[in-house]
Amino acid sequence: MEHKILEIRAAYKSEINQAASLKQLDEVRIKFLSRNGSVSALFEEMKTLTKEQKPLAGKELNALRNFCESLFIAKKEEIEAQSSIVAPKIDLSLPGVNYPVGSRHILTRTLDEIKSIFKSYGFSVSGGPELESDFNNFEALNFQADHPARDMQDTFFVTKDFLLRTHTSPVQIRLMQNNKPPIRAIMPGKVYRNEAVSSRSYCLFHQVEGLYVDKHVTFAELKGTLVAFAKEFYGSNLKYRFRPSYFPFTEPSAEMDITCFICGGKGCRVCKNSGWLEVLGCGMVDPNVFVKIGYDPEEITGYAFGMGIERTAMLKYGITDIRTFFDNDIRFLNQFK
Ligand code: DAH
């Protein structure tokens, strides 16, 4: 009996050690510990022993069974632990998954740059609604009743008295109506025009308006501020010029040109061979505008300016079709990350 116990113990130990899966382990368990297993067979055999032999054999058999069971449990835990490590098969050499990351639209970036320059000059940033009154968009800005800009062909009228603003200048009116001078602000936003769509014009675009009103504001300050801006935005070695122009809400009015940075002023397709690029409109606020909103034009002076953000970005980045800003073609947008 003792001999058999040792034999089974050794056989069991070696088979358990070789088991590599839970299935193989269970096969070993069935072979040795089930009702028909070899350990159970020894218990059966015990019945044939003498009364004197039985207690010792019983003790040894129980020890064998305990040994087998504890070995089984230990091996089972070992296999389970190993399989849980191996289970999620991760191949660390595989290339990672790239999640597409968005970026600021080129118009937003251009506007942010314009904003940060004017903020550094002490300008605040204001806004107004896109649905405007005829009064704010035209009347208060000194547009004559028969001014062509009021024409149905240019303006999206919503009712007789309300329209989609055609420029950001009405925000000047709102600011002046609600604040006392000094006011120094830029006013970015969307504007709408009922024009034929082409590479140069779109029914929707963006402008930034600028306004500084106070006592004794001069044209020299207007020039100084806009020249400083242009040099910071477009490049410090540009040349510039102010050309006389006309806007109903400024007197005198001017347009600012800078030397074409594509050809350096020699003349090319972008500057239409003139060597100059028109970058913004500006002027001294017309006294009639001050009268409309209730300021005293004898006491208050001011300057204003306006520029298109699409046009500004097109000049700076050499973009040739305004419609590309609104197509949201990822190949276009990715160029400006
Ligand atoms: N509102 C003008 C436009 O849409 C731009 C402009 C020109 C604004 C001169 C101004 C200015 O404030 O002084 O074309």
Quick structural overview:
This protein has 337 residues and is an alpha+beta fold.
Q: In angstroms, what is the radius of gyration?
A: 43 Å
Give the CATH class of the largest domain. Answer: Alpha Beta
What ligands can be seen in this structure?
3,4-dihydroxyphenylalanine
Order of helices and strands: HHHHHEEHEHEEHEEEHEHHH
* Strand line-up across the major sheet: 1-4-5-9-8-7-6
Choose one word for the global shape: rod-shaped
Largest sheet data: 7 strands, mixed
Sheet-strand content, in percent, reads: 15-25%
Total strands: the figure is: 9
- The parts where pLDDT drops under 50 for at least 5 residues are none
Overall pLDDT metric: 91
Number of domains: 2
Number of helices: 12
Query: Within the CATH hierarchy, at the fold level, what is the topology of the largest domain?
Result: BirA Bifunctional Protein, domain 2
Question: What's the architecture of the largest domain, going by CATH?
Answer: 2-Layer Sandwich
N-C termini distance:
84 Å
Relevant CATH superfamily of the largest domain:
Bira Bifunctional Protein, Domain 2
Which class best fits the helix and strand makeup? alpha+beta
